[in-house]
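Support request, please re-run this one:
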Amino acid sequence: MRSFYFGAGLVVLFGGAVLAQASDIDAIEARLSGLVPDMEQVSIAETPIDGLMEVRVGSEVLYMTADGRYLVQGRVIDMETQTDLTDAAQSGMRREQLANLDRSDFVSFGNDDAEFEVAVFTDPDCGYCRRLHEQMDDYNAAGIKVHYLAFPRAGAGSSTHTKMVSVWCAEDRQGAMDIAKAGGNPPRATCDNPVMDQYRMGQSLGVTGTPSIMTFNGDIIPGYVPADRLRDRLEGLNARNGQ
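Re-run finished. Output below.
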């Protein structure tokens, strides 16, 4: 794979495909420049379809014709291989962002040698998030390690945000999370913390509700899923991804 910069946009050229012409990139960027405030959020890549380009704007995946005339919203599926190309592109973006996270910023539950690991965007005042946490022993027993990331749905300055800051700033983060998930308020604490950075990252990854479960391969499993069913889902994803 080779990457080049043309103007502000990143163009990724995949080996084996017909390389996009600079004029095609210019045509697409010209169309988008009046619509997208920050062109550094835009990346353009080829698809297996002649004349159709993949355009990533933040966490969104769109498609444009190479001449920049037509913009297409929707999923692209290869019916011959049954591959969802849009889902693959979105998973790739999530995988890249999750890989760049500092794992010391997680609040984690489970064994280091767990068979599976998931990142869970959570809000301690969310009913299904509490239900998931109540069953943490079941997830760990099923070989799943859970890494919590903060997603205070009410945003900065809310009581939930304050509670989550106290969790992330606690000397015992797991104990503070247990208190918060049980409906209590952990001892008030403040520090430099990743709460809002994780919240904004969740938004960029398409998180709209909690709990939102993601694999570190970029697959998303929205909502609460019991331990046995989650393990089945993770095994299926591994089989699909050839792991």
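The first strand starts at residue 2 and ends at 6. The chain has two domains: 2-89, 101-240.
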